[in-house]
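Researcher: I'd like a structural prediction for the single chain below. Treat it as a standalone chain; there are no partners to consider.
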Amino acid sequence: VQLVETGGGRVQPGGSLRLSCKVAQSQFRVEDMGWYRQAPGKQRELVGSFRSGGIIYGDFVKGRFTLSRDNAENTVSLQMNSLKPEDTAVYYCKAEECSYAGCSLAWGQGTQVTVSS
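Model: Treating it as a single chain, here is the predicted structure.
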């Protein structure tokens, strides 16, 4: 599966950004799309993801981010509000491509989010 990420950039603390991830190419059914992030020197962590029909968020989100999807466009978006400097990271879209043989995990190329005054 090929994932294309858009959005990201630099924003001041308290600002907003919107990330989008589109499935550009897939051979099988794509499920459980979402976003992870990785800051320098830290492990990749969950930001928000569809999972088993619901949505889960990382503990740090605390209502600031909203995950949504457009099934017609095969796109998942992450609206990020009230951004903090500690939200600075590379954000990665992830998806699971599932066939009769099982599911495989795929990642986008990553998009940089920088929150700084």
